[in-house]
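TL;DR need structure tokens for one chain.
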Amino acid sequence: MFRILTSAHSCRIRVYRTAELARWTANPTRLAKRLVQAGELKLLAQGLYAAPRRTRFGEAPPKPEMIMEAFLEGAPHVFTGPEYWNALGLGATGLFPAYLVYNTRRTGNFVFGGHRFILRRVRFPRKPTPEWYAVDLIRHRDLVGLDRETLVRRLRVALDQGKLEPQRLRKMALEFGTKETQQLVEEATASGRGAHR
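>> reply
TL;DR here they are.
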């Protein structure tokens, strides 16, 4: 029954909250339990379920982005952390045992379907740029073992290579950084070709 009703959406909707099942029954909790027993849904956490997608290698787990979209009920959020900081090429190679997610609703540590999430209710831009991720890295440099001098030097290289835009970097530091972050960004943008852009 559930597969027939959701077949049109199964490619794009794979994580559900209990409340979403109310369109098929007056008792969504009971329906969720029945669908879990039948193998139609997998319990990720209390009130959060995934519709398993079977591949030739077995069941494909839901993507972390799908889990957050359902858990936060579509509220604005952004993934950040080592995966994104490492992509900047600033020498950050630290790892977290969890996904770091900034959002407008929740703060706390959660586990959904074996994935760990650290949620923080903090300000963030709707469309993150490399400059914002650089500011976020600066704020968390202790977590990835980057000392101030090394980070300033690598920021200058990134600015000179055109990987980061200095004006945007300063703007992100002013809007989302601490005083220390702003000072570090000013130091990095105060010399070299990046200072003249």
